[in-house]
Amino acid sequence: MEGEFWQPGNFDSLFEALEPHVAFQLVPAATLLLLEQTEPPRIANAGWLLMNVVTRSGTTELPPVLDNQWATVMELLDVADSTEEAQRAAVIARESLARWYRRYR
């Protein structure tokens, strides 16, 4: 996995181009993508993707898929056994999602 870590900011132009309603529609897919990950760097990357899609949606309405999987998503983003870079990205994603939805564990 070394060298494969996606850097936050690589897809900023993609997120900026998303219309808020499209971003909202992508939240369930981004959630499911995160839930499929098993390797900490990929979990961090998928968490970062979810965080950006959520914030781009511009709404604090919690889609049912994310609502139903909230505890699992938060647990996945606790990637303590990973590289420092992946840990940092996962913590940012976890804390950002919790603040956005005002939902703490």
Describe the structure.
- It is built from six helices and no strands.
- By secondary structure, it is mostly helical.
- It has one domain.
- The chain starts with 11 loop residues before the first helix and ends with a helix.
- The mean pLDDT is 87.
Q: How are the elements arranged and paired?
A:
Blueprint: H1 12-17, H2 20-36, H3 40-57, H4 64-68, H5 70-76, H6 84-101
Helix pairs in contact: 2-3, 3-6
What share of residues are in beta strands? under 5%
The radius of gyration is 13 Å
Structural class: mainly alpha
**Head-to-tail CA distance between termini:** 29 Å
The general outline is globular
The number of distinct helices, counting runs of at least 4 residues, comes to 6
H/E element sequence: HHHHHH
Tally of DSSP β-strands: 0
> How would you name the oligomeric state of the polypeptide chains in this document?
single chain
Helix content, binned percent: 55-70%
Which stretches are poorly predicted, pLDDT < 50 over at least 5 residues? none
Kindly state the mean pLDDT as a whole number? 87
* The number of domains: 1
Largest sheet: none
